[in-house]
Amino acid sequence: QVQLVESGGGLVQAGGSLRLSCAASGSIYSINGMGWYRQAPGAQRELVAFIAKSGSTNYADSVKGRFTISEDNAKNTVYLQMDSLKPEDTAVYYCNANVRTVAGASLHYWGQGTQVTVSS
């Protein structure tokens, strides 16, 4: 079993910053990539940022230049630095990990979600 624990959400004014963290633990052999998704009320869950095992990254157009994804491989942790936040960034943010387990399976796991609210 693999667990993802997120932290760092909260309430911030427009223009402010937040940093999200997501730590993976459990029966992990390797992590192929980790990412952040978000879901606003009434909307579909969407990819925000992704970082592959190689270190390559990709971002949603709406966050390019404002958000930065990074990782600490030794800690199986991924971060999302969010700057210049806008009210439209308000959503529940979910961490996702593509994990190869000790048993040899390649599976996706989700965190429980953390609320980010940006006030205008």
Number of helices: 0
Strand content: over 45%
Relative helix content: under 10%
- Main sheet: strands, sense, barrel: 7 strands, mixed
Instruction: Say how many strands there are.
Output: 11
Q: Uncertain runs with pLDDT below 50, 5 residues or more?
A: none
H-E string: EEEEEEEEEEE
Given the helix and strand composition, which structural class is it? Answer: mainly beta
Shape: elongated
Write down the Rg.
Answer: 14 Å
Distance from N terminus to C terminus (CA atoms, Å) equals: 40 Å
Overall average pLDDT: 96
Give structural notes.
With 120 residues, the chain is mainly β. It is 0% helix and 62% strand. The protein contains no helices and eleven strands. The chain has strands at 2-7, 10-13, 18-26, 28-39, 46-52, 57-59, 67-72, 77-82, 91-101, 106-110, 114-119. Strands 2, 4, 5, 6, 9, 10 and 11 form a seven-stranded mixed β-sheet that branches. The chain has a four-stranded antiparallel β-sheet with strand order 1-3-8-7, with no helix packed on it. A hairpin with a 4-residue loop joins strand 7 (67-72) and strand 8 (77-82). It is elongated, with a radius of gyration of 14 Å. The model has no long low-confidence stretch (mean pLDDT 96).
